[in-house]
Amino acid sequence: MNDNALELDDLTVRHRDDLIANGYSIMPNAIDSALCDELVTEFGRMKGKWRRAHVQDFHGHRTARYFDLLNAAPIFQQIPIASKMLPVVRATIGEDCLLSSYGSVSIGPGEPAQIIHTDDYTHLLPRDHPTYFVNIILALSDFTEENGATRLVPGSHLFDQYPDFAKSASYETIAAEMSKGSALFTLGSIYHGGGANRTADEVRHGMTIAYVANWARPQENFTVAVSQERAATFDPELQALMGWRPSKIPVGRIYTAPEHYSGPMADKIALKDEFQL
Question: At residue 244, what are phi and psi to the nearest 5 degrees?
Fold first, then answer.
């Protein structure tokens, strides 16, 4: 990325550089503690009512993972465009990157460690691919080794193979411990997984916000999942992340401007616009 073009501040540059070099970076105080509490409260209201959830071996049977959050309460519109986090993502994978997936990840007591995996496995690219995927794991409560802090395999973003699921337990990992309101940035290529929650009654509340470069297909199809009428009320930056803003490269085009009209229907289309029929 061109630092001058984006006018990056020191905080953004530091975390971008750490992310590229190490495969991860932790930013304390990425969002306010009060906002964390509001988000956790909202997840509590959704319990038993929000049916867009995953409960299976990979995501966990004692872990609450809610998706389709842009159709939920308005508070969830704030997080993908948070002022400290989004600049790091854009500095890493491009200013016109896209939101790929967005959900909760609250690990309950007794949940075993998640299988070690990579997030970029979804696109099935060879491991020598360029950097195109950044995930943010947002701590809505303190992340500790005891309550299931994310496990990372340092240096694994440079490995030439995807992780072997059968050997998941054998990888040497570290716990990404961090305080409430912190953000863990990870490259899509780093080996990682949710930790085991060995506490008796403590839920590790978090969220994941994944982004991909402008040329990659997002995991969630936000332009279809969210109605145009609802999306029209969103912040323009969120609309752009959903895919409503054309890319600076020739993908994701929307041919609705008059200069694109052509063929035998062109005059009729232009006339319809002129008279607002």
Answer: -85, -10
